[in-house]
Amino acid sequence: MPVYAPSGSGSVHIDQILTQISIAWPNDGLVGTRLFPPVIVRKQSDKYYIFGREGWLPESGDVRAPGSRANEIPGLAVSTDTYFCQEHALQIAVTDEERENADNPLSPDRDGAELVTSRLLLGREIAQKTLATTAANYASTNTATLSGTAQWNDYANSDPIADMRTAKTAIHSRIFLEPTLGVIPYQVMTELEDHPDFLERIKYSERAIFTPELLASVLGVGNIVVPGVGYNSANEGATPTLGYLWGKDVIFAYVPSRPGLKVPAYGYEFVWGGQFVDRWREEARVSDVIRVRRRYDNKITAKGDAGSADADKSIAGYLIKNAVA
Question: What is the mean pLDDT of the chain?
Fold first, then answer.
């Protein structure tokens, strides 16, 4: 088995220490995996199950006479969809000069692994955000676009609590389960903090300070997350164009506490092989090269019935577009 050799063999080596650093890199502000929890799969490409809802069919023929067989019912009608865990990878060169001139607490190898990890996971976050905030991915009953006085920054006319409860009931009417997660982006949350509807409801609370936990309590949703991560949408080398990645769209979703291939959910990130850091020597560049790679596919998994108008559309989530102006 080839072993990495800094002296110049050029052999690719999975660096276990840098891999652990990459996995432990803090995901502050990233919430995509809250909507699409990772599920480790054994194959890069395969099928996953979409279960029917036969469990809701009442059964009247369940009486069994002594000595007779119980009536047998058909199993779940199972359809399938496919995933393909495309590899996503970035790399960075750490020069000998950089390493030799680094002062504590700088660590070029660690810093390089963390920078590449940050960029890689930011790309994943953008992909998950795009999937979650595209109205065409939702059933027609599970999305709304606000405008004018209905937007929540209009304190005199808007009704955010009613809008959010509409989202809850829409999800419950399709899957008979309450949403467990709400994604309220930072720009939306800062408007809600001063909305009279919420101030009236929390003024008698212990601290009377509007928090995600208080919002979750008012709505009866298990968790509210407030993504505040920013990103640069300009091209490489151009003047930075900074903005909030999650924008002004609100999402409610049913996400199970224990994800699995046969557990219904708003969505999953299918991951093949985990996340690794490779390192090798390129003597011609007088550098070591550090590469982070992850193979995954994001999928919305709880969808409308086949043949219906909402086939292939999310029914375990609800999207509110343009919640604030």
Answer: 87
